[in-house]
Amino acid sequence: MSHSKFPGFMANKPHIAAQLTGHEREGLVQRMFSSIAHRYDLNNTILSFGFHHHWKWVACQVVSEAHPNNVIDIGAGTCDLSLMLARKFPVTCQIMAVDLNEEMLEVGVEKIRAAACEDRIHCCRGNAESLGFQSNVFDVAMAGFCIRNVGQLDIALQEIYRVIKPGGQFICLEFSRPTTRWLRSLYDWYSLRILPWVGTLVAADQTAVYRYLPLSIREFPDQDALAGRMRRAGFNTVDYQNLSGGIVAIHRAVK
Description:
This protein is an alpha/beta fold and 255 residues long. Helices cover 47% and strands 19% of the residues.
């Protein structure tokens, strides 16, 4: 896992994990994701009915509008977003994929090798709350389905703001709040009853991660609240677009 092309590199109950903050939450969440790393991509496709590919591609389109020379993918996991970006951008664009979970990154590294993208995508372990890069390094920071799992959201947003260049952007793809009552009811029924059962079966998981995930979505700030937190972190322009009726949203925040 190399970072040489970037300057300045310096089984509990699921509702308990969703409510914890700081290092306790971080530790629980990382143990859960380690347990499902090798089935994570398959489960994402099954549980989202394949929509996660579309959501990520739209996020990549938003990133492309900034014409970045370098991008940091925060909470890169198995590197789906990084690989989409590498396919979309010219060879001059360098991508740093950062994730705290070693098992997830190992899967991502194998995917990067299989795609012959080692010269474009560079992986390292890192925490969103303390990224270890100099300030004002990246044209764009992006995060796909990561931010709701950090231990301290406001600290993570401030750290992301710090590493982006002035005029740069943070593109955040995250689960959010459906915009209509009927869709909220349907989504709650699916995420709380069907998703945990299917996810646990496919992943053969014993850590309750697929019961934690829908609870973490429920407790995460909605579209407007997250935009407000981004503004408080220092971003001066924040907007968002809903996808699939607000099941997910893409926030764009400008430094």
